[in-house]
Amino acid sequence: MSGWGNFVWDNGYGDTAPWAEDTAVPYDGRPSLRSAPIAQNESSSLASGLFDNTAGTITWAWRVDSRLNYDKLLVHLDRESGERYLQGFEGISGNEGWAEYSISAGTLPPGQFRLVFSYTKEAAGGVGSDAAWIAPISGFPVLPPAGSEVAVAVRAPLAVPGAYAQVWPWATMRATSPLSVPRAQAMTWIDARVSARSALGRPGGVAAQPAVADIAVPSPLGQPTLQVRRVRLAPVPAYAPAPGRLLADPLPLRKGSDLPHYRTNRELPWVYGRVWISPVPLDSAGLLWLVADHPVTAVERVTVAGVQIDGWQLVQQVDATGQAVALLRLTRPPADGGAIAVRVVGRRHPVTGQAIEHPADIVADLLRQCGWVVAADAFQGLREAYPALALGMVFGAPVPLRDAIGAVIEPIGAVWSAPRVDAWARRPRNPVATLDASAAERVSARAAAELASVARISYAYDWAAGAARETLTVEAPEAIERYGRMVVDIAMPAVRTARDALEIGSARLADMARPQWQIEISVAGADAPIDAGDTVFLAHPRIPGGSALITATARDRTRDMLDLTAWLPAGGAPRVVLAQRGLMVEADRAAPSAVVYRDGVATFTVTDDSGMPLAGAAVVLDGQAMRNTDRFGRVQFTTSRGAHTLSVYMDGYAPFQMDVTV
Q1: What is the model's pLDDT at position 654?
Q2: Are residues 84 and 176 in the same domain?
Q3: If you count Cβ atoms within 10 Å of the first and of the last residue's Cβ in the chain, which end, N or C, has fewer?
Q4: Is 331 found in the same domain as 459?
């Protein structure tokens, strides 16, 4: 691509189709760079050379001619390792002429980054030229002349958990051939690992130990020009980072007033998993809306007053404060002030790039956002107990970090431990200790007040509507016979599917449908290796015995005592059955295919959890008229507007009800 001089490019980045020069669509008198012809679900990517936060402002021009909202030119920001730092923080689609865009590298954290321009097709076929173009203007990394020496900075992370160091001795790499061959670049950063001979056991602890590392400079030039030299690293301080926010501190959510030019005072939300949300307005015209105060995985649907619209574009970019955000740009404002709702898939995992929706990943990310250092295997107990659970959550208020974690973990019937950074299902496991009369100095037991035989479960919360969309009722028949109908309401707003709600709700009712003991016990030794989530075997003559789950601990070092709170269920778990299933649907809020009312006739579409229509299901309206669904899951009734109840019966499914407002 000689038309762009000595800029560094990694063409075909990520093993995608490479770009090429295009003299037919020039910019500023020079050929532009054009994406390759690709098919549906393919990409053509071009990456810049590496740069850091001293690079200043990086500016380019771009244009696109493609299918609106489907075939897009996206800009990503990758770390040197290839890990995605910002996913699609800006992008365009449709028929857009040349426009200039820039980012400030000074807003980035320390490290090396590359800009990735990726034209991606989501739709079959093509519209217009079905291509994207860019033209670098300024700030992009450039190639060194052939034969010149390139400075190589050595980064040396210390091999101590939570410790780090940055050292700057210099090595050299000589480029013996021109770096103009495809995919060639000069690597200006390399990693070396040194060992700090200090435990750094306290925040702010300092190690200043010299170390020696071998520096290998790889060359992508196709020539064996590696240099290996031994470099002595000068003594440098290494700091163990201080802990992040306290559990009692609020989530660091920003407000709209924190953004220049915007006057809304709403908190800017964090979004996890797949949810419906009400976006934050950012302009008086009703054309620009904030979806989340971070990049998101996708926007799947947009509705205005319950009607799906197509004239929108997801824009992910760095705002004027340096924060990456997800914006929604409409082609026209909502008519008559209609409420806008967005179905969004929230934050991506910083390593895997997948949507963060498992409870273990959500809690770990909340801690990271609050300054905690979280190990990759944190909350392993949650992963083992709920291997396939996917949640959808929105944090739109500055609640304490402890409450935010509890909102993720407690509704699914789990307990967690801050010191261990872990969580488990609320079930006794293999005991780690036996507590008898010789080990315990103070014991007490009382019956837990929570006892129920019927549970009404609400789930699939709609953050745009402000209400749960689906309900289940489960019963414990033996408990009903013994104690009568004792009803409890269980809210699981983040749980998305009936299958998960039924499994978790049944387990929670099984616990509440039998007597439970809360045990208080004190043992000698404030540093005894027992923590929340552990199971102990109680063998004390003054309290009920058996395997009990530790739910809380308090270490009193003045008395050198460990105070424990334990949960002990009495007897085996009773049988729990599904009694009723309900779906809250309103014609004005639903997608057109869910409820349609016209000329006194209501048309309903009945689907399973995956959205597939239930053909041949028997549907009863208000306990009277019965119809069967057609092959598209549709059924019609002549009825008046207002509240109605649909009862659905289908082979292979438990009977369920839908409370419908037409």
Answers
A1: 62
A2: no
A3: N
A4: no
Determine the pLDDT at residue 583. 57
532 contacts: CB under 8 Å, gap ≥ 6: 415, 416, 417, 419, 420, 550, 551, 552, 553
Q: Which residue is associated with the tokens 């696109």?
A: 64
Q: What is the pLDDT of residues 308-351, one digit of tens each?
A: 898 999 998 888 777 889 999 999 988 877 889 999 999 988 77
Q: What is the pLDDT of residue 653?
A: 65
Measured CA angle at 337 (ends 333, 343), to 5 deg? 70
In a domain, 10, yes or no: yes
In a domain? residue 390: yes
427 lies in some domain: no
- Please report, rounded to a whole number, the percentage of residues in the chain having pLDDT higher than 70: 78
CATH number assigned to the domain comprising residue 655: 2.60.40.1120
Query: 268: domain range?
Result: 248-414
- Is there a single domain that holds both residue 169 and residue 117? no
Say yes or no: 235 and 262 in one domain.
no
Q: For the segment 472-525, what is each residue's pLDDT rounded down to a tens digit?
A: 899 999 999 988 999 999 999 999 988 899 999 999 999 889 888 888 888 888
347, with CB counted inside 10 A (0-12, 13-18, 19+), is: buried
Structure tokens at 597: 């009312």
Give the position of tokens 């083992």: 384
* pTM score, whole prediction: 0.55
Last residue within a domain, chosen from 349, 383, 414: 414
Report how far residue 523's alpha carbon sits from residue 442's, in angstroms, rounded to the nearest whole number: 7
* Band of pLDDT at residue 450, cut at 50, 70 and 90: confident
β 577-583/561-569 pair status: unpaired
Query: What is the number of structural domains in the chain?
Result: 5
Q: Mean pLDDT, to the nearest integer, of 173-178?
A: 31
Pair 474, 391: CB distance under 8 Å: no
